Fold these 3 entries.
Entry 1:
Amino acid sequence: MTRLQNSLFAFLLCIILLFTACQSAPASSGGADKPQSIASEPSAAETATLTARIVDISGNLLLLAGKDDGVYRCARPEDAPNDLIPGMMVDVTYGGYIKTIYPSEPDNVQKITVRENETDGRCALYLSVLQELFNTDETLQSDTEYISVDLTKTPLTKGEIQAIAWRFGELTERCPLTFTFKELQDEGYLETDELLWEDGCLFKITEKNDENGTLTFDAEKWRAGDGASYFLDCTAKQNKDGTYADFEIGAFAAA
């Protein structure tokens, strides 16, 4: 390559390098470039709403049966209505997270709103019936480990039945179940050819009539063919607010 060619090659290389540098230089608008932020504004805290019936109130804790058939327990927020009672249907606003324990616990409960004209006091009524039945002829379940609550002959939801059974087990210090007599056999708690539940008692409530604001039902506690107690032709009148007055036992029987 001649000297002239070398000079021409060097000149062209300088032109190319200069052009490339200009193309890659950042755009400027009258001063030093300001870095662009990629951070976005934080979004508002997520919330969710749980619709549920109050099954029981113990101190500051509410036991709830969700419309989704779940069983929940939460603390009453400071600004909750002062007149909360079992049987009310409520909307619980919480932080969007539910702790996976049993009963489940909505996190960061912020508000409880009562749904008007949706109160039904059956849960509280039947829980009181079960307690009265348990305290009658206590020797029948003196050495038992389990209680099974059969409320399939009532209009209660699955969640309401499970919540009642859980609270009943808590109050009686027994392991709660929600099996019928047939299901106890199918699950191996009862021997098919023996009318005896050695380590448990079956509690059953059967609704018979619900007219003119008066509920009629039977309740029974069974452990064996010759070990049972019965509340027959019980009645309870519904108050204007949807709750029930104390029930009355029409007749008592034992086997």
Entry 2:
Amino acid sequence: MDPTYGTHVKLLAFDFLSLTQKSSSDPICFYRKGRPVSRAETVGVVVSRERKGDKFLKFLVDDGTGCIPCILWLNHLNSPYFSRCNPSDVRLMADMAAGFAEEIKLGALARVRGRITSYRGALQITVSDVFVERDPNAQISYWLDSIRLAVNCYNVLPSPNFLKHHHQQNHKR
């Protein structure tokens, strides 16, 4: 498995919005220049915010290259999806999501991480965590990190030996 697949890949909006899916049969795998990615991180200004009661919060993060749609689920306590989970874990997730929803205000500079998903053909980040940045240089620093990582890591395909070794290690477990 490619090492970019399970990590939060730092992407600028123009890069995020250019991700592709090879097939609709695998809804959780997206590709950036041929490399699989499943999670992303972005930093930008919250420019739109729409809450649907206790169900979800939709918001847009603008990083200067475009806007990334994000969705934060708030229905942990009454969703059948979480009914099979430990109730104390679900309560913790619900409390964390409620706290994140309070932090996401219009004009806030936010660092958002989560799974890359598609809804009605549009890419979005299904939020796992949010951090409101207090440092005014955070967005510039993020831009520089994203560009450096794109050039030195994301644009470089792993060697076949790495993939072979990684594949063998995963099958020994």
Entry 3:
Amino acid sequence: MSEFRKINACAKRPVDIWTNYLYYPFSLRLVYLIRNTRVTPNALTLGSLLLALVGCLFYARGDRAAIVTGLILVQVSYVLDCADGQLARYRQQYSPIGGWLDQVADRVKEFALYFSLAWGYVRVHPEGGRIWPWAMVALFALYLLEYLGQIEMFRVKGRVLQVNENGVPVEAEPAPGADDAFQKMRRWRALVPFRGFIIGEQYFAQLVFLAFGWVYSFFVFVSVLGLLMAVYRPLVQFIKHRHATANPPQPS
């Protein structure tokens, strides 16, 4: 197996289609280039945070050119954010401080990005103070989604794991004869553009809306979709739990 294929196998999947097809092609190649250097996963995390904060300085200016410049920096920061975990898994460099740093950096970036965007919008549109409530709701929704993503609301007792050819633990395949319709639904759901509004979908939404200068609409979109997903995601977890208990996986 080539080194690039090994790195690709270390990418966290399944993920949203935007991360998989838009951001991973860059992050995987970055990891390939630095795989034999002294660059550490934590250095990539800090680099991602620094790039995002610099992008926020441009967001805070509020004019179109500054927003586009900030957008480019923020999008590159997400590529680094993807690469830090891929590099850690490729080198087997796991550490409690690394996981903590990654989580803290993500939360700092979220607050800085949305605050600076709102600040810049009001700076250019003095009458646009109505954006602040939307900014608060958007941040609340994102933090709530992150919390939902960190917990398992419905644990399946005796969940079976198996190790794939790259030594990575994965869930076992469903039992033979399991509900084919359910599996097909899961595969089709993976192609939905915003199926859970996880982090890659959030960055892609930012890319689309801000590229056209739709700052206010972006906050409304994140607020509404984020709150809807805060209801939808636990519901999906419950359905998966019911299906998993009815069709337990079999070890290979």
